[in-house]
Amino acid sequence: MPAARFRFGKFLVSPAHRTLRREDADVPLIPRYFDLLVLLVAERHRVVTRQEIFDRVWADVVVSDGALSQAVRTIRRCLGDDPRESQFIRTVSRHGYQFIGVAVCEEADDGPLPDPQAPTDDLARDPAPGPPADRLAPLVDRLLRRPPFAEATDDERWDAAVQLHLLGTAETLHRLDDVAGQAEARAILRDARWDVPAAGPVALLGSPRGWSAIIYLVRLRLRRAAAETWNRSGAAALGGIVSGTIAGVAGGVALWLVPESHAGANVLVALGVVGAVAGALGAGGVGAGLAAAEALARSARVTALVGCGALGGLAAGALAHATVRAMLAGMFGRDVPAAGGWVEGVVLGAAAGLGYALSTSPLPGGGLAAPRGWARLRSALFTGVACALAAVALTVAGGHLVSASLDALAAGFEGSHVGLAPLAHLLGEDGLRPVTRTVVGAFEGLMFGAGLAFGLTHRPGRLRNRAIG
Description:
By secondary structure, the protein is of the alpha+beta class. Helix content is 58%, strand content 7%. It folds into three domains: 4-108, Winged helix-like DNA-binding domain superfamily/Winged helix DNA-binding domain (Arc Repressor Mutant, subunit A, Orthogonal Bundle); 132-208, no CATH class; 226-456, no CATH class.
């Protein structure tokens, strides 16, 4: 049976044609916002929770709560709806949204639609329709905060940028030449174009006041994504704690079971704690870098993820190295220069960024990648393998990961049972030689990358008791 299209008031919603029409004129609406409108109309008999909206409309990405509020505001404008006296979309405080338009008629969505007239929308006709050739003028004024839109909010400016892309990116950019406020306007247009598949390019480098536009764009994205970046780095750190604990306990079990080892069962706890701390520091730092890359750089995604992953690894590695050395020097008067540090962090962070970039899809509408099911497991495995290969390269080059650093520490403390010599003997070596270093390093890298990616791609639940705009 064909899917249904919906008629209410002057509007027609056709999921098959992905079209919203007012009378016989198309109303421009970006894809995810259209999907939200269809969901609300189709489920009009009930309140649709925010969590369900995120799971169904933004199923492949994590976006901020503000993205949903912004989508609802835009839909309301397209329908001519007033949130204070709503005729179509009702906000159910602390819960979600419901479509309340009366007399919704359903019909089969398998036939052609009548030819549309020129596109129209409430934004384009505010404050007055004006001649057809001047339909962009009020939107440009809103984007630039020129009278009568001097008090336009950031969301209203972003909505205006979306509508301008739908009506013509090139013409909009032409109207911004040599006008006051063009740097901010270009930055907003650049940010909004990712939500409009038909949008044209918005170059910043080489444009008038290009560097000012770039700086404003970075500030804009940082401000919008700061909370989500923080949450994602926390999720990555949690993934690192779990995988680090598993790796540490696994190493402890191996040492405990080797006949010639003197390690007792307590080594499982000790190595588990070490693995958890190392995993939290490393995955938290690299995860913060990867989340920031997705928030800031929607173009050149692979380069951004590799670079920011390396920066996050540098910070985490340097912090871990300095902390361990300070603790050992303060408590035992020992210095262990062989302990891993920023170089290892840079290499592993870059590898994690590359693996994550190649195993998750680019995000045409923005947001942070959140694959599910097998796609999430594949991302974790791919990132883990990339980190394992990087770890092997580090060990061959003489680098020190957690296990090699522990072995170096054990050599400096008589009676320590965390040295890797017993494991090396099982591999036919008399100490931490190439084969042992390679096997142990590959296992560490695999667990680190897999835990980081699995935690980073966690899709957080939304608290039901949060206020809704």
